[in-house]
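Researcher: Going back to the complex we discussed earlier. I've cleaned up the inputs and rechecked each line, so this should be the final set. Can you rerun the prediction on the complete assembly and write out the structure?
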Amino acid sequence: MLRFLIKRLLFAVPTLLAVLTVVFVVARIMPGDPAQVIMGDQASAEAIQALRARLGLDRPLWVQYFEFMGGALTGNWGSSMVTGRAVLGEVLNVLPFTIELTFVSVLVGAIIGVPLGVWSALHRNDTIDYVTRIGSLLGLSFPAFVMAIMLLLVFAIQLRWLPVISSGGDGSLADRAKHLVLPAANLGIIMAAYITRVTRSSMLEVLGEDYIRTAHAKGVPSMAVVWRHSLRNALIPVVTVVGLYLGILIGNSVLTEIVFNRPGLGKLIVGALTQRDYTMLQGLMVVYTFIIVVTNLLTDLTYGFIDPRVKYQ
Amino acid sequence: MTKSMFAAALLAGAAALSIGAAGDARAQEKVLRYGMATKDVGRLDPHITATTPDKALLQMIFSGLVRFKPGTISPELIEPDLAEKWTASADGKEWTFNLRKGVKCHDGNELTSADVVYSLKRAGDSKTSSFSSDYKDFDKVEAPDASTVKITLKNPIPSLLGMVSNLHGGNIVCMKAAEAAGENFKLKPVGTGPFKFQEYKPQQSVTLVANADYFRGKPKIDRIEYKFIESDASRDLAFSAGELDLVYGAQNQTWVDRTKQVKGAVVAVIEPGELSAIYLNTNHEILKDIRVRKAIAHAIDRKAMVAFKGASTSREAKSIVPIGYLGYSEDVPLLPFDLEKSKALLKEAGHPNGFTLKVIHTNLSGMLPTMEVWQAMLKKVGINLQIDVVEHATFHAQIRKDLSPIVHYAAARFPVADIYLTQFYHGRSIVNTPTAVTNFTHCNDADAEIDAARVETDVNKAKALWKTAQVKLMEKVCAVPSHEQLQVFGYKDNLVFGYDLKGSLSLGPMITEQTYLK
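Model: Rerun complete. Updated structure for the full complex:
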């Protein structure tokens, strides 16, 4: 197991280097200039050039590249070109919000999605199954920002149960929970739609296996057949989807963050892109790659807990 | 009950009481919740930043030697701020400012002439300022004594007061704080304004607190929560739900009409107008023919554009300088909407069936529809605009490389014709040159008048020169002025600004010591 972990983490190093190189090159190929963004549209070309020199953007690309790689590997990620604030500090400031939202959304998705998927599979081609399938299709096809606005209209404007601005407050646990409900519900519903569909199809496959028929024939109670014999074997594809989606969610929850006005990594990435904030973008890519690597690793480890036959080699 | 249990109960009671008291104090605190359309703030340094969200915030933290009367944008209504009075020499080259005594910086240090000298030199240094070129005619800034500042100019600058006002480089930063913070000053700005910077929460808000030592008196509002709310829909919903007292609005009639329906809401449409114009590259192979440029001008229907944008949030442009700026003139050759004339001019220029032109434009939701309306108008005379829509930073980079023969730009500037004419029409500002700013037209026909007006001490003579410049540039049809878009804000009727809100050069309502919540 330990060897497996070390091996996987070592494999992540070339991935990280490749991602950093691609990000460095792409950021500089893109038209747009961080100096122009910082100085604004009234600045003269001379003033912009002076700032470019101060930011070190006038140096040869290879010098910038090695400086950046050296910094990234030694943990010195520099400061945001636009705001001047430390990249690491900026990332650490918003990371708890992203982790909190992602974790709770996945939890909501799993709590709704797994039982619904199982239920749907057990009632294959029944009304229940059709309703669940249509419901999950709707969940998948509904844009996140539209659902977010609808949630706000109902729960924040009409019922006045929850706030529109899901940030700020006094920072207490109750306050944070209140601010988390709607964004987590928004992402959780989409997640539930994915999980429902995968659980259903995976369950259908398992329910048709010989050992399930045998279990029924032996007189094993139906509930035990479903939850112990079937679901456990059907969970591997579900965990794969959750693992994949978790990575996507961390970077792609930007629309939810914008509509609910929550801080998060997604917003930071989009902001860095639009402002051509090279240093911030590079730092964020290190974090993002690391998160993906860790998520994949955790997914692989989870397989072993679900199915003891899985060996780590 | 044992002694320890009794003591614990007492402590718990005391703690509960103190929490209750703190809660009461918090409840009584007057907090203004201000929703601004931005992802985050940038560099909180008044000498660097030029964006609306940053400027609207910084105007509450800093003061100038003089200031625009709150609620106005007219240079003629400039009034004392840190300076009590000032005098100018007969030749307009020496200005002496007498500072108020007892003004305190937010760090507790007393503001002296040394701070003002430091700040103005900082504003004039390209290493520390985006606005350094505005101060290139400053020869010396000196402090003869602790409460006097003397500015010596290389050439007279009639609009000098604007440059030492509470805008951009004129904002006075406190020397000790700025020197101690160095590069980090942008993270913790220190000025002398009515509100002090307290806290920055990334992607969430900046909190300002009342400056009890403010020289005009302690502000009536205790705290300002300046919230960054990028999504227009979320900002509107938060305002409707009562989570915001003041909100940045969308510059369109629909927003105004909808917001007026919100209970207890007031809509303010304020100056300055951002002039939207079509800048034509007069060196372009097709556009270099003045008949083609005139044909474009005749095809633009200003009335229709205002109807599209909203009658209460926009107005027809009359000149290439925005309405109301010092030096603006209506007595200029503005070509009227006339499709037949436009078609005739195109035919005469050898384009009887029109022509196709590729242009680059931003995907910004506030700007793209404007270009699309012009596209539809020009289509009527056979001019086919192919719009290459790019992301905003790319747009700025590409138009400055002279890659788009037609550029749509909307801008408000310091309200003196000189700034607008220099940045958009002076030969020095032509894009893709070392001294470039935003002259996309390549016109330089009025350089002599623009330069002469800048140093003219007689305001009437300067106005005449600016008028000549406008006439020359409009006769050449360097650009087609279309409309002006005003700034739109919504606020709750319990918010009293304490002045007549007609405009704000920082593009956001000023919260002064007189502003309060009923």
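Model: Worth noting: The first helix of chain A runs from residue 2 to 29.
Researcher: Good, that matches what I expected from the previous run.
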